[in-house]
Amino acid sequence: MPLFKRNPFGHILYVKKWLIRILGVISHGRYRRFNNLQIEGSEILRNLPDNNVLFVSNHQTYFADVAAMFHVFNASLKGRVDNINNIGYIWNPKLNVYYVAAGETMRSGILPKIFAYTGSVSIDRTWRSAGKDVKRQVKMSDISNIGKALNDGWVVTFPQGTTTAFKPIRRGTAHIIKTYKPVVVPIVIDGFRRSFDKKGLAIKKRNVLQSMVIKEPLEIDYENEEIKDIVKKIEFAIEQHPSFLKVISVEEYAKQEEELNKKREFWS
Questions:
Q1: Which residues, 6+ apart, have CB-to-CB distance to 112 below 8 Å?
Q2: Quick one: pLDDT band at residue 162, thresholds 50, 70, 90?
Q3: Per DSSP, what are the bridge partners of residue 189?
Q4: Distance of CA 237 to CAs 51, 145, 162, 219, 233, Å?
């Protein structure tokens, strides 16, 4: 019997646990002190199976989005209701949580490599590389690694493959859903782009109201629904369909900003 248990990707769980503990303590204040994370739907997490769950979310920063999800997932599983108060939940984290990330991002420095050990399923993007548009074949090993992660636990993916809002959903996510038939849980986040720099490491602005809405699992007919129908369903679920874009007047913008400020005061 090995001295330390490993996950399917060869990561030592004892090491992973301590990395999550340390990074969790360091990052907690970014969602509770410098800014306020408003959470909705965390009770849904407690009713999910232990594995074969795929979270689909819009994307605003490279790392801050995922870190916030690690906090919310673990806090909810330890009984917190729509909050991440009392960081004690991080002492015994859920270790079979993974997230899909671009391999070039996770290999870009020592810090991303440390983050990768906490649960990254690194893939080679077929549409973008080194800041340039490319077109290349999907690596079957990437697909099988996502399947391996789903078989072991929960997987977070950002199906737009970019932090730019309202970009198209990548069809590969729908292929993964049809192939592995996971429970698909949509998450909608906001405020992270205003709070952090693009990487999600540096705090750009304080006292920003961040939000994370966890929605009920999608109803999907894995056998009969077409790829394009699943793509459209994801677009609407994570509120990235073009219909969510609207032009508003200056007066309406001012009204929305006033309501948002009231929420900020409430949560501060």
A1: 63, 105, 106
A2: confident
A3: 212
A4: 21, 25, 17, 11, 6
In this structure, of 11-15, 169-173, 249-253, the range with the lowest mean pLDDT score is: 249-253
- Is-contact 83 111, C-beta < 8 A? no
The two tokens of residue 80 are 């917190």
Cα–Cα distance, 12 to 119 (Å, whole number): 11
Three-state SS at 57: strand
Rounded Cα distance, 14 and 216, in Å: 32
Average pLDDT over the chain reads: 86
Which two three-digit tokens encode residue 3?
A: 């001295």
Amino acid at 254: A
Q: Residues 56-80: pLDDT tens digits?
A: 999 999 899 999 999 999 999 999 9
Unique residue bearing structure tokens 């006292």: 207
Query: pLDDT tens digit string along 108-144?
Result: 789 889 999 999 998 876 545 445 554 555 567 788 9
Helix (H), strand (E) counts: the chain: 9, 9
What span, in angstroms and rounded, lies between the C-alpha atoms of 246 and 163?
20
Q: Give the pair of three-digit tokens for residue 205.
A: 């602005």
